[in-house]
Design brief:
The chain is α/β, with parallel strands linked by helices. It has a single domain, classed as Rossmann fold (3-Layer(aba) Sandwich). The protein contains 12 helices and 15 strands. A 5-stranded parallel sheet has the order 3-2-1-4-7, with helices on both faces. A 3-stranded parallel sheet has the order 8-12-15. Strand 1, helix 1 and strand 2 form a beta-alpha-beta unit. Helix 1 crosses helix 7 and helix 9 runs antiparallel to helix 10. It is globular, with a radius of gyration of 20 Å. The protein starts with 7 loop residues before the first strand and ends with a helix. The model has no long low-confidence stretch (mean pLDDT 97). The structure holds NADP nicotinamide-adenine-dinucleotide phosphate (NAP). The site of NADP nicotinamide-adenine-dinucleotide phosphate (NAP) has 27 residues, from strand 5 and strand 9. This is (+)-lariciresinol reductase. Its EC number is 1.23.1.1, 1.23.1.2. Belongs to the NmrA-type oxidoreductase family. Isoflavone reductase subfamily. Keywords: NADP, Oxidoreductase.
Length: 314
């Protein structure tokens, strides 16, 4: 008999990635709980989103990071906790709030697996990352340390580049709609990166939660057809629009000098683009014993290719 599917709590379910996790969890037939904070005010979009989750079968729970008991009560209802709390400085960065969630999970004692808010570059590979962007990786590592010390079973998900940010902007920071005229290459535009449709990140994540092969491991979502350089992404776009873009290039030195002129939140994001697009930090290592690759684990999933993703901008 097939094992029963885990009950899942999603924290941060109203977010950019979180809402996709809710959708994927429901689609996979998990009993899905969504924790939302009480301070909704008159945010009508958020209420409508929560109601749409409820309509699709999710259980809504009110809870706050300022109310330890509300967190304990929520995690007691489920087997798996997935957190997708914000971690992008140009939106908000609340990664360390998860230390309170770790506390609650430890106290509740029933959770079989916790997936903290990661979903991007593997922070364990970024110990030499530059200031100020390294804060993202440092904070994610603090959460890892706390949950591992609390002996909470975990899965870390490295979703590499969210397609909406990276493909939408042809890998140019600060842009999320592809131009039909011009692109600025970061350096020579040749280091490969990995682009993943956010809905696919959510789908692979939900696949992983009940899989013994991903227990206490990092799941890298690295679909082979989506490992491409900025130049290759631009070529795909050019083919789709039937036109060659005018190209300029910004050297590493110019990029870093321009970064210093920006405000703090922008600098954090630019640091990440620097490591991905100039240094190739997503592809310059082999997945070791502590990791598994999602498209190999779940070959039955037809992931979205870069070309398919980019068609939406035509
Ligand atoms: N690899 C990539 O390219 C990439 C890109 C983007 C994000 N990421 C990663 O993905 C993860 C999720 O990011 P996201 O952009 O999806 O997040 P987001 O949309 O900015 O926010 C996610 C959630 O955080 C909640 N939240 C924010 N502040 C809160 C607080 N003080 N108390 C309680 N809840 C709070 C929001 O709840 P409310 O709706 O109530 O505000 C929302 O549900 C992060 O770890 C981030 O670093 C990776």
């Amino acid at each position: 008999m097939a094992a029963e599917k885990s009950k899942v709590l999603i924290v941060g379910g109203t977010g950019y990635l979180g809402k996709r996790l809710v959708k994927a969890s429901l689609a996979a037939g998990h009993q899905t709980y969504v924790l939302h904070r009480p301070e909704i005010g008159v945010d009508i979009d958020k209420v409508q989103l929560l109601l749409s989750f409820k309509h699709q079968g999710a259980h809504l729970l009110t809870g706050s990071f300022d109310d330890h008991h509300s967190l304990v009560n929520a995690v007691k209802l489920v087997d798996v906790v997935i957190c997708a709390i914000s971690g992008v400085h140009i939106r908000t960065h609340q990664i360390l709030l998860q230390l309170k969630l770790v506390h609650a999970i430890k106290e509740a004692g029933n959770v079989k697996r916790f997936l903290p808010s990661e979903f991007g570059t593997d922070p364990a590979k970024m110990d030499k990352a530059m200031e100020p962007g390294r804060i993202t990786f440092d904070d994610k590592m603090k959460v890892r340390k706390a949950l591992e010390e609390a002996r909470i079973p975990y899965t870390y998900v490295s979703g590499n580049c969210f397609a909406g940010y990276f493909l939408g902007g042809l890998c140019q920071p600060g842009q999320i709609l592809p131009s039909k005229d011009h692109v600025e290459l970061l350096g020579d535009g040749n280091p490969p990166a990995i682009y993943v449709d956010e809905d696919d990140i959510a789908m692979y994540t939900i696949k992983a939660i009940d899989d013994p092969r991903t227990l206490n491991k990092t799941v890298y979502i690295s679909p082979p057809k989506n490992i491409l350089s900025q130049r290759q992404v631009v070529e795909i776009w050019e083919k789709l629009i039937g036109k060659e873009l005018h190209k300029s290039s910004i050297s590493k030195e110019e990029f870093l000098a321009a970064m210093k002129e920006q405000d703090y939140a922008e600098q954090v994001g630019l640091t990440h683009y620097y490591h991905v697009c100039y240094e190739g930090c997503l592809t310059n290592f082999e997945i070791g014993d502590g990791g598994v690759e999602a498209s190999k684990l779940y070959p039955e999933i037809n992931y979205t290719t870069v070309e398919q993703y980019m068609r939406r901008y035509l």
